[in-house]
Amino acid sequence: MQRCLLFFAVILSACATPEAGDQNKLSGELASYVSDDMAVAEALATLSALGFACKDGAKREPPQANDFECTRKKGPRWEPLACLQTVRFKATDRRRVTNFEVLEPVCGK
């Protein structure tokens, strides 16, 4: 019976991760690392170090040159409860970040 209660407590604790789905907290976290007018290469390296995987828009269908989308999973290890965090930005002709936006995280799907 104790093992059953322990298992139940562990499962419930996995649900208590509101930070992963908090867009304001994510925006605040990323604002200290990535901002408009920084070098694209620097932004991509920083986001990668933070656990994001980025795709160049040229590799998407339909191709969108100079558009970038970066995602990471955050939250409980149990996949159905994790959150997908996404950021998007464009690159100027000088390869600088512009239109940096943090999208609403998608959780538990």
Layout of SSEs?
Blueprint: H1 2-15, H2 23-31, H3 40-49, E1 53-56, E2 67-74, E3 83-91, E4 97-102, E5 106-107
Antiparallel strand pairs: 1-2, 2-3, 3-4, 3-5
The number of helical runs is 3
Overall strand count:
5
Gap from first CA to last CA:
31 Å
Mean pLDDT: 81
Structural class: alpha+beta
The shape, in one word, is globular
- Stretches where pLDDT is under 50 for at least 5 consecutive residues are 4-18
Proportion of strand residues: 25-35%
- The ordered H/E elements are HHHEEEEE
- In angstroms, what is the radius of gyration? 17 Å
- Percent of residues in helical segments? 25-40%
Task: Characterize the largest beta sheet: strand count, sense, and whether it forms a barrel.
Answer: 5 strands, antiparallel
Summarize the structure.
With about 110 residues, this protein is α+β, with helices and mostly antiparallel strands. The protein has helices spanning about 1-15, 25-30, 40-50; strands spanning about 55, 65-75, 85-90, 95-100, 105.
Task: Walk me through the structure.
This protein is of the alpha+beta class and 109 residues long. 30% of the residues lie in helices and 27% in strands. The chain has helices spanning 2-15, 23-31, 40-49; strands at 53-56, 67-74, 83-91, 97-102, 106-107. Strands 1, 2, 3, 4 and 5 form a five-stranded antiparallel sheet that branches. Strand 2 and strand 3 form a beta hairpin. It is globular, with a radius of gyration of 17 Å.
